[in-house]
Amino acid sequence: MACPTSSSNTGNRLSLTLKRYTFREAFSCKTALHKAREMTASTGGTGKDLSRSGRTSDPWGRYYTSPEVSRSLIERINVPKPKLVLELGSGSGALCTAAATRWQDARLITVDTDRRTSKQQNGQRLAKPGQHSHFVQDALDQDLSSKIGLRLGTVDVAVCNPPYIRPRWRSDFGRILEDAGLSGALASLHDAGADLLFLAQNLRLLRRNGKLGLILPDGLVTAERFSGVRRALLRQHMIEQVVQLPRGVFKGTEAQTYLAVLSKMAGETDLLAPI
After folding, report:
1. Which of 30, 130, 161, 271 satisfies CB 3.0 to 4.6 Å to 215 for a cystine?
2. Which pLDDT score is estimated for 232?
3. How far apart are alpha carbons 159 and 180 in whole angstroms?
4. pTM of this prediction?
5. Strand, coil or helix: what is 118?
6. What are the residues facing 86 on neighbouring strands?
7. What is the pLDDT of residue 27?
8. What is the DSSP letter of 253?
9. Among 173, 169, 243, 215, which residue's Cα sits nearest to residue 9?
10. Residues 6 or more apart in contact with residue 63 via CB below 8 angstroms
11. What domains does the chain contain, in order, with CATH numbers?
12. Rg (CA), the chain
């Protein structure tokens, strides 16, 4: 498959060279994702029972990015006036700050299990008075919606940068994957890392046609063991953008990562159409 060439995104606030793909290139072929056009990531957090964090990440498996990169993800989500915006694993607050800046009239809900970053966020003014609620909760609790005062399927926009970690398996995870339509997409449920689990939890909370903007690691986008997940996402949702970030955009790691934006249950992704 021929690949387009890449170019600098000189019109953006970031002096980064980014690569954009049709979803056919990005999710339909494990050898794809090496060349393309242009464009411009965020924070995360998981719950307890972590198996192991990276050597250069924080104890929760998080790699933080700049406010500029966070704004870039928010700007790619085509929703002019959402009423409810959610971030699971809000970390240091860069991504939710970008969301609050763009959608100033939206209600903002953030969730993180780390009390240290939660205190930091409580001291920030992320939204207009009364419009931001922060919860210290395990983002991968299957009963999270009731604990943060939401019903499943009600969020307009969700944003997320999952931690790079594999949590120890819990029965909660099977229910979360099943509700998101992804339990049958894995050869082994124990292949489910925090990236996939956060994606699934966000899908449970999003309303139909709600938008999800998130950071994905290379494995979920290209690895053969996740091919079933990619097929399920293509069948169930409209994938609007896949953008390759430069290596090194996360401090302390050279891991390859991507921005992705999808619209929940908005129709099957057209693999032949450019994004």
Report:
1. 161
2. 94
3. 16
4. 0.78
5. helix
6. 109, 158
7. 54
8. -
9. 243
10. 54, 56, 57, 164, 250, 251, 252, 253, 255
11. 43-263 (3.40.50.150)
12. 17
